[in-house]
Amino acid sequence: MSDATLSGATAPATAAKPVAFRGGGFAPRPHRWVGFVVFVVLILIAEWGTRAGWISALTLPKPSDVLATFGELYQSGMLFKHLGPSLARLFVGALFGVTVGVSVGVLIGLFSYVRAGAVPLVAALFPIPKIALLPLFVIWFGIGEGSKYALIAFGTFTPTVVATYGAVDNVDRTLIRMGQSFGLSWWSIVRKIVLPGAMPGILSGLRISLAIAIILLVAAEMLGAEYGIGAYILQAGSLYDLERLFAGVVILSVLGVVVSALIGLIERRVLGWRT
Questions:
Q1: Diameter of the chain by CA atoms?
Q2: Residue 131's domain is classified under what CATH number?
Q3: pTM of the full predicted structure?
Q4: How many domains does the chain have?
Q5: 132 near 223, Cβ under 8 Å?
Q6: Taking CA 160 as the corner, what is the angle to CA 208 and CA 164, rounded to the nearest 5 degrees?
Q7: pLDDT tens digits, residue range 147-189?
Q8: Which string of DSSP letters, residue by residue, matches 207-269?
């Protein structure tokens, strides 16, 4: 038998087969519609339960009534009258607390003397319930906007510091040694290796810090605020108006979702190198 015949007979057996890509690295796939469906299903269950009598109206109002309350708030202009001051307080307080927290956390992660002096102080401040300090901030800064800004800033400062220096510590030291072996300067290593490597942990910490900021915003507005989501919830609760009360809670939930979405957008822009 000739060589040509043998090669022709074995060609189909040795033909290359396509192999599926197996290097995804457990990368999460976006399924945005799933979260929307979950919310819709829960709302429909609540609506059905309240209309059928399985859920007492004294416990949970109808979602349709809460939606009607939103319409009244919007038409009367009170929605933005309460939402505007809350957003301003949240933005100013969280911006100051996050900025100082990230700066201090990076310094702790980079300098041993700063770590030795600041970590015990942060460890002592972190477990303190920030809401319990609200009367103290009122004494220091007055009952106006200053105490609200200070409470939100302090509440976001400590978790941001802990998340930031933990993220700096978790940067792969092999990459740092590689940069040193190539003769990179200290600042180049920090800018090109340490900060990009720590950014995922910093942004994850921001999700927690900003959620805490929203909680403290409500607490601060319940004391000495005429307008704001916290003041609106307090007024509704004192009148036992469940529709208004749940409308305020839903506003806070939507605010949390929006903040999380903004952080997710920043992650996609800043951490595109991970894909």
A1: 102
A2: 1.10.3720.10
A3: 0.81
A4: 1
A5: no
A6: 115
A7: 899 999 999 999 999 999 999 999 988 988 988 888 889 899 9
A8: HHHHHHHHHHHHHHHTTT-SSSHHHHHHHHHHTT-HHHHHHHHHHHHHHHHHHHHHHHHHHHH
